[in-house]
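Comment thread on ticket #2218

A.B. wrote:
> Attaching the input chain for the structure job we discussed in standup.
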Amino acid sequence: MLRTLPQKPLSTYWERIASLALLGAIVVYFLPVLTAYYEHWLAGGGKVENRAIALVAIIYLVTQQKDLLQAPLARAGDLWIGFATLFGGLLLARVPLLNIQGLALSTALLGLLWFRWGRLGLAHLGKPLCILALALGTDGLADQFLSVYTPLVQWLQYLDALIAGYVLWGVGYPVELYATVIRIGQAGVDVYDGCSGIHSLIEIGVLAGVAILTISKRDRAANLRYFFACMAITFGFNLLRILLLAFASIYVGQEAFDALHTGWGADVYANLVGLTAIVFTARYFQWNPFAPKTDSDGV
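C.D. wrote:
> Ran it. Output below, let me know if you need it in another format.
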């Protein structure tokens, strides 16, 4: 009697091919959006490196779920939810705002995830999807939303000016404070919205979120302490920068002030804040990327 050989599950094979093809179609559809983001990050300075960290984290988390491609399709109800979410993301991409289009890409990928695996997919790939939403959705948030529709940026301006003014007054300078303007004789500094620190807070906030979703094995309370510590470090660096600008306006002159404000000093400030946040993250989570990986290590 002839024995039939076991057949490969063709349905699962074609499901995998169809899922990858649909993913490729979404990427092609959103390629102009991704190009616009890249050009914006490159022109803004300092954001490409941060977004590269987010991309590496996404790739790392996704590659840990290789077996997920072999999982069966979601249930009928999840198929309809996923399709509706995917279609909603495609429609949302028509809104002519880069932030919204970035969230539309995240929504479309969420729809594909739900369409293919349902809640199982979200459980396995929810973290990289959150990182993508953070990296894309927060871009331009300080200029396009927070500074226009909320008083948060203005509060930060007043707080920075108030603290810096008291520090200068405490060390003996004759400070006059007018809202966001710190005046010392004929010199001084005005804490504009760009100097409020909101951009740095958002950027470091994204990196902190990436660290929590990628390398943290701590509980929620410890993660919150870490996040707020990163915010405090960033706020402190911005306050120090305002004080340096005030001293430059008093003792050095306009040329040095401009160099510290928008020239090489701005680059040094951004790199120093990012480096400090990375070192603090490594120490807080006891994380060493060069340590040999053991079988017990996990995400």
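A.B. wrote:
> Thanks. Noting for the ticket: The first strand starts at residue 175 and ends at 178.
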